[in-house]
Design brief:
317 residues, alpha/beta, TIM Barrel, 2 domains, eight-stranded parallel barrel, 14 helices, 10 strands, globular
Length: 317
């Protein structure tokens, strides 16, 4: 793993920038900050704000929705930000194709963005990496074929081997030989709590809420019995039982929860994974609006320490 990043929340109805966290991570040696798009925000406006308050962090989108925004306008906005920040700080992550043929829609969109990068003026004036968010095999193949990198929706340490044949198919279609330059950026969510089970609960709620969509991932991870049980309980409205049906070990594999020292230990697997970049987020990503809710910033410091970006401190009370 080469890079560390953090990401702004997309779920809240009233958008805010956690500037204290962003500035802390820049001081701690993090490499990037990403924005997203949701019901309370777009992905580009906050990047301009962040550009005015940071000096070194790369500024990325994870992700810009392609359906509501033309490729030309997206490219112009990204190029403007690239020029204003001196070049080399912008990462363009795209996703959210909602047509009946999403792979073709994404292919055309990325081609149009690249064309805008290349044709504005008399020479190429922006060299912004383009990454594609993808979950299904056809979109993952497309990312490997046409993009500079891939942003998986779900990832676990050691998972890249399962995706490698799919990626290789995309690489072969493009004739790409320099596959080492292809980047993979994934996220992991954190919650600090001395009560590990309490910290797990919001992620169990998330797993139950989105169980139908995530069933292929549950099965791939070997949790077929859990998937079957959730398929029975959730449609019946038996959510408490569904939440209880998610095993602790399932949460421990995919999230960082518990006391700070536990997070320090468990993040090592992510840091030693095949990822190019790890994006740290804080808090549950579904449920109640958390606008203005406090974050435990020591979690970001502990990760920086585990990655060798900051001197280690003792976090024992």
């Amino acid at each position: 793993m080469k890079y560390l990043a953090t990401e702004l929340r997309w779920q809240d109805r009233y958008f805010s920038v956690p500037m204290e966290r962003v500035l802390l991570t820049e001081r701690l040696g993090y490499d990037a900050v990403f924005t997203a798009e949701g019901r309370g925000s777009d992905g580009l406006t906050p990047l301009g704000y962040l550009a005015g308050h940071t000096k070194r962090l790369k500024l990325g989108t994870r992700i810009l929705q392609i359906t509501p925004r033309s490729a030309t306008m997206a490219a112009r906005s990204l190029m403007t930000l690239d020029h204003l920040t001196g070049g080399g700080r912008v990462i363009a992550g795209f996703g959210g194709a909602h047509s009946d043929k999403p792979v073709g829609e994404m292919r055309r969109y990325v081609a149009d963005v690249r064309r805008a990068f290349d044709e504005t003026g008399l020479e190429k004036i922006s060299d912004i990496p383009v990454l594609v968010a993808a979950t299904g095999p056809q979109m993952v193949q497309l990312a490997a074929e046409i993009a500079d990198g891939w942003m998986p929706s779900f990832f676990l340490p050691g998972a890249l081997a399962a995706f490698q044949p799919t990626l290789d198919t995309g690489f072969a279609r493009s004739g790409r030989t320099d596959t080492a330059s292809f980047e993979t950026w994934a996220h992991v969510d954190m919650v600090v709590d001395d009560d590990v089970r309490a910290a797990m609960r919001p992620f169990k709620e998330y797993t139950a809420t989105w169980s139908a969509m995530q069933r292929p991932m549950h099965e791939a991870r070997g949790y077929v019995d859990m998937a079957d049980r959730l398929a029975e309980l959730v449609p019946a409205g038996r959510m408490e039982e569904a939440i209880d049906a998610v095993p602790d070990e399932y949460i421990d594999e995919g999230w960082l929860v518990g006391p700070l020292e536990r997070i320090r230990t468990r993040v090592v697997g992510w840091l030693e994974s095949e990822l190019t970049g790890l994006i740290l987020r804080y808090g549950a990503q579904v449920g109640a609006d958390r606008s203005g809710a406090p974050e435990n910033l020591d979690a970001f410091r502990v990760v920086a320490e585990a990655a060798g970006r900051a001197p280690r401190r003792s976090w024992t009370p």
